[in-house]
DNA sequence: CTGGTTCCAACTGCATACAGATGGCTGCCC
DNA sequence: GGGCAGCCATCTGTATGCAGTTGGAACCAG
């Protein structure tokens, strides 16, 4: 239930600012209002929807300022993850990260945005896992989920694919060299750039 | 409702591992099960209680490994906050931070654990706010809430008060000097030390 | 006395019914 | 014609009832 509604939001089926009426959602999933309500509470706690007393839940329309704070947080968290990952990744993890990264070059050359986007998600997830810190993993995953409605189109920008790949390259190299500082910085600036690329698509806050 | 139950957990009234039976909670607060259920869902999303299908919610008994990951995350987040705060705090914020810190010395000299603990909470909150990043503020606040059951007694350790004050001093100085790097490091190691001091009190995980 | 099986009580998950609140619409008054 | 007030429709918040499931207690067999 939570998942179903979250998907509607993350996939963009429900647009930021849109009201989530309990009865229509209940009808849509053919259940009663109760599970819907509970799911909305949970989504509210996760920050995906906003709730105030006696009002409909609304898909969080992150205002510019809060959106920026999330992108900044994302950059910081990525930096931390990469730094920790450089120290802690196992040999297998390093190998997988590199292999995966190398193979993604084909999508860049082919200009396959969708495929590269999928790889990109995996790549970052590997990074988060590599930090070997469950709580940080949770935080970064949640933050990413909340940001996802706002960066769907990030790879549409011309040349973004190649640049993203080059930035990944820097991160991978630093991690393979076990250079924690460099890895942290590379990941940090990588996300900073993504945030700039995505800002354009941000839904105007109210 | 959420707040009421969360308080029971944070204050230690409900102990990690304890089952949260919906009907008794409903009776306790003199409401029906419905709002209790929704509150539990929300607390589940916040990570304060664990939930699995057809089971009672249980106060999260953070296992040793996850507890460590939270303390580590806390150290990283504090470091980030202090670093950002050193750059971004307004003159008023700096002044308040210093004033507050100075005045806390009286509690150290008097050995007033309760009072110092209250000040300590304020001090760190100031730091988080000083970073001027709402999302990071949320994350660090949530993490702290989840950790609170596990560090209630941190100032009981002999000499901890004075050491904490000295560490705060380093952080304050670095921020007043606008030395972001030093502030970040000082805050990071401060929390690392707290985590060591608290580990002793961790409820044994299962 | 111990191990297993069966049954029951208690609790969770969901649905429905009702009460309270809110926002918009309509109609009246100025 | 415009503005204000009161009413009504609609939606959220809460209570209660019922069905499904689970864990444990009691009982029986070895």
What does this structure look like?
- The structure is a homodimer of 206-residue chains.
- Chain A contains ten helices and three strands.
- Chain A has 206 residues and is mainly alpha-helical.
- Chain A has two domains: 2-59, Arc Repressor Mutant, subunit A (Orthogonal Bundle), CATH 1.10.10; 64-199, Four Helix Bundle (Hemerythrin (Met), subunit A) (Up-down Bundle).
- In chain A, strands 1-3-2 form a three-stranded antiparallel β-sheet.
- In chain A, a hairpin with a 6-residue loop joins strand 2 and strand 3 (57-59).
- The longest helix of chain A is centred in the middle third of the chain and has 25 residues, at 64-88.
- Chain A is elongated and about 55 Å long.
- Residues 200-206 of chain A have low confidence and may be disordered.
- The structure holds a DNA duplex (30 and 30 nucleotides).
